[in-house]
Amino acid sequence: MDVSDAEMDIQEVASPVLHGQAAQNDRNGTGVNGYDNPEIPKNSHDRAGDASLKTTTGIRSGAIPTDPDFASRIIKPIPDFPVADQTHYVWEISDWNTTRRSQKVQSPMFECGGCKWRITLFPRSNAEAVSLYLEPQSPAKLRQVELAAAAVKGTKTDVEPADADQKQEDSKWYVCAQFALDIWNPENASAHIPNTAHHRFTSREQDWGFSAFISPRELTARGIMLDNKVNISACVRVLDDSCTGVLWGDFAGYDSKTSTGFVGLNNQGATCYLNLLLQLYFVTGAFRALVYEIPTDSEDSSQNKHADTLVNGSIVNAIRDLNIIDGHAVTDVVAQLSNAKPPEENAKSSPDKAALKRARIVALAMQRAFAHMQLETSPVSTLEVTKSFGWDSSDAFTQHDVQELNRILMDKLELAMLGSPVQNRLNSLFVGAMKSYVKCVNVQYESSRVEPFWDIQLNVRGLQNLQESFKNYVEPELLSGDNKYDAGEEHGYQDAKKGVHFQWFPPVLHLQLKRFEYDFMVDDLVKIDDLYEYPDLIDLSSYLGDVPDSIRNQNWVYKLHGVLVHQGTVSNGHYYAMLKPFGETKEGETGWFRFDDDRVWKVTSTEVFHENFGARQLSPQVLRNLSRSEQQEYYLRRATSAYMLVYYREEALPTILPNTEIVVPSHVRAQIEAEKEATLARSRQRIEALHYLTVNLVAVDNFKKYSGFDIFPDPSLKRSLGRVDFDPDSYPDQIKVRKDAKIRDLLRLIANKYGYDSEADFPFSVYPLKPRANKTSRPESLISEDAMNETVMSFYLKHFKKRGEEMVLFVYQPEKDLMAGSKDELTSSANEEDVILFLKYYNADTNEITGLSYVSTKKYTVLSQLLPLVNAALHLPAGSNLDLLEEVSNVRIEPLQADLTVEKNELVTGDIITVSLPGLTDAVHEKYTFLHTRVRVSISPSKITEENDFIVSSPVVADPPAPIEMWISSAWTYEELAKSVASQLHENVNPDHLRLFLVEQDLDGDSEDGESQIAKRYPLPSTVKLHQVFSKLHAAGTTHLEYEVLSVPLLEYESMRSINVHWLSTVLNPQLIRVFISKTSTVGDVISKVIEDLSLPKELWGGILAWTSVMFKYGDLMKFDMSIEEIPANADLCCGYFPIEVSILVDYNMYKPYTSNGTSAAVSKNLGPEFDFVHANEVKKCEQHEKSLNFIPVFHFQKLTTYVHSAPFILIVFPGEKWPETARRLSQKLGLDPKTAFDKMRVALADENDKGRYLELNTDMVLFDEIKRHDSSVSLALDHRERNPRRSYAQEKGISIG
């Protein structure tokens, strides 16, 4: 409220003194730091904001309130936000003692930035502390004040109350301002207390300030109050935030789509790293167009789709011609480089159909995510994407590495594009090439190779900016001294320069900044927070190597379009992206947006660049001299840094960011529209359910089709599969009726349903079907005339009390009674005194129990009197005898006395009599037992067949037969199950040879074909009782079984064991052999299988060494006479040709060489020049150091020692051997080129707890001496990227997709 007669507790005590005109602007001052935006607590008045957390106190500028430039000196300028207006207002209080007796005092108004402002003072609000607030007057508030003042004075005013449009406009009002409030001595301005703050004033938060500015005692103690007088200054700087529109905003009611044209992505828990990658891919228009063209609509789409039929054909064709290298399309050049690689690295060029299908499931999820991001107006869920990866909820709460996810996802999409018009088209966008070389200094000799790259990893530590990182990357290393390069027989060892230079750069260049490094001392990653700058434009031509002029003379200028930011520490951080989605920028805007999970907003250049550079580390002394807000800003700058940079080639911008519309594939759009319609339909159903009730109607026609317990199939019962268990016609008919309708109205609907005249008297009777105590549902009492005026809802609540119970009515139609037309005295018209009995018949030929009819009769009727009618209905000879059983419940089937009456047999309305031919009572009981224990199963050939000689099932084919669906009993044994399954297979299958698996699907899986679901397979032991299995399964649903046909009986098969054996031709090129062998076998028997499988020459046998690998760590040496039971269940067996290691172990009586038929094999010779050289060198050193050599286990990891991979092994370590010689032996075992093996591999020593340190791999380093420095046993740890990514145990949390 303004100062007025209507506000009695506010006292106007002084006239304003204005220093400088309101129009005086300091337009050199700009925006806020953007870092300091904590939630600010409200003060005790519950209406004014408290800026005490956003305050700079004890300002060291030396400025005093009477200085002409006081406002400019005390308020820190903010880049990128122009100053709209600035003023310095002084409020003079001449009688402080009078003022302090008031609860609240407000200054006269002053103007700044088109708003009227005033200072609000609470002299004794907070524990006697003085509170100060600044308050602009919104249009709504000014209107309210003027109307209130006119009402008090009884005068007219031209101001009208706000209409709906004005209220809407008022709600959008805001003003962004930096301000300083200063209490000072009128006679001595140097005695003052200033505090600064900033705020976005809105209609919801119209004042902001300081709840405890200063205590009255301090006013005197600091010499601020003189002669009961004090001045209060307000320096206000209004900023223009039109470039972003969100300066200091709290995003309440913010709409990303309206403000930016983009939508955010919901965070599933810790998936911000995934969100920023998806947003980056989405705004890269050319990439989105390629993803849209991946064939995902049908299996044969990839065969029939041609480039001229692509929905985004013009963009795709432009991508194809985007990068021409020396007259050839980049896709062809990359293909040539890929074909030069070993076959195992090119395996993805010929994937199996299952791998391709999984890849296209991922591609479809990406297409749908992009389509939602393109079409929706609210944040999009990424749940479908992560499900297509095969992730569960734990992955959603695990932070993964952005770079790793980026590369794996690219591989998956590249695989999905095979066989389509966009095959290899990703190469045109993302693939460059670099040349690794070693060039001799003194002779004409050079060794080099060219290989493609998808991203470049640049060092950050110790470097100032991106240009320095590129120079560091291409800077050659001098090989000299003991580290000279072996230039072959012609030149021998030579001084040489080793390095890399670039052949070309891709149009979309991903630069990974190495902000994270592994520190063995803390056994964890550490983050490098140092200052590191990157430019908006960079010319990369100087980093090209010796390339043709046709390449060098191209424009290699790149423009920044993406900054992926990590804020926080290694253990607790957040990812977001700064992206520039358009090639052209509107006037007055930067074109940059911040994509931060579910929100997107415009940002300034400072926010893109300077705020993500990190910060230099300050000394503790410098930190202590900073104010609190400056310290907060420093720590935030240190924690916030760019992690990945995305540059677009300047001349390729029109193709990378096309101006043409990127069209969503029609099948994807149709799916989304269908899902929206389904969602709307469900919403309509929910609304309808508020007013309507579904009534289930059971009539005799339903009963006659039914073959289960009770008189109708109840989908809510245990083990029900819904409305598919039985004949579809056996299920109740359904009608909808308004809840407030009368029962009479319901009966009219029933009459219409069954073809009766709804206006005449109802010729049928209706009974509620209600649960009995024995868990059956039977007709109860007849709906009487008294209930006709009752509402349907009240009737439902009265008769169907169980929560969630459906309303089910039995409709008795007398014309369909078994006794219809009979004039016998037994005939009844179904009144309260009569009994309605249901009749079922057991057919021995079909082994089925089905409904026959019902009969309404008297209580005194003898059951035998009903038999002629039953015989007639069954077309049996007159006088045929029948056995009678009562179906009391699904577990009680009791005999009835035919010579007794209905009443004497204790039969009532709703009871069921099952009739059968004489002598079939046991068969009826067995059938009822089967119905009680039956389970629906789906049986199909095994999708995952173990590689062993005992599986004779046909291999998985492209179009496997449809699964066989059947009922089985949980009371069966495995033998009975196998016989039943074998009888259903269209092959001559011996049930003794049938191996069955229980397949459990992930309940969260939503794929129609189950491909995206996570399945677990459990082999069923031959001794299993099925009730042990099915009692633990879900009550409803079909149980999935798979089968294999064995060449031996299952009992014999179960006495065998499967062992994964890795034969190491070289350590990094293993061959996996799955050996299936008797549990009584030895390790030697396993090796014999390996020798046979690989056809190993006899000369290698004597040098075979075997050991276990337990979760990729070295386990134990395995002697050939050991039982395979000594191989741990969680271990694999590794073996290979290691003759030197074997000979040493034999000399120490620790090992015996492999023998065949008691004869030891010899050691091979002449296995290649490099092998023979290393072999001879090792033999020589073994002779020299026979008593002092050592063995060390070796394992592989990637970044973290918890992410281990590849096969472990042991390495001989010799005293005095320098690193170059050790490296040559080690690279030979790894199967790598010794000249380049350790270019991208780091070597460490780690103890049993995986703690240790990296080694400095200089020419003088002796590994033997490094090991001796450790008190405990250590392993050699090789840090390098996994060549064949796979996960072998659940504890590993590396990223996997599909």
Automatic annotation (TrEMBL):
Residues of the USP domain: 263-650
Catalytic activity: Thiol-dependent hydrolysis of ester, thioester, amide, peptide and isopeptide bonds formed by the C-terminal Gly of ubiquitin (a 76-residue protein attached to proteins as an intracellular targeting signal)
EC number: 3.4.19.12
Region spans: Disordered: 15-64
Organism: Australozyma saopauloensis
UniProt enzyme class: hydrolase
Keywords: Hydrolase, Protease, Thiol protease, Ubl conjugation pathway
One Pfam family this sequence matches: USP7_ICP0_bdg
Domain MATH: 86-236
Gene Ontology molecular function terms on file: cysteine-type deubiquitinase activity
Protein name stated in the entry: ubiquitinyl hydrolase 1
Family: Belongs to the peptidase C19 family.
InterPro entries membership: MATH/TRAF_dom, Papain-like_cys_pep_sf, Peptidase_C19, Peptidase_C19_UCH, TRAF-like, USP, USP7_ICP0-binding_dom, USP_C
GO biological process, one term: proteolysis
GO cellular component: cytosol; nucleus
KW Protease (keyword) present: yes
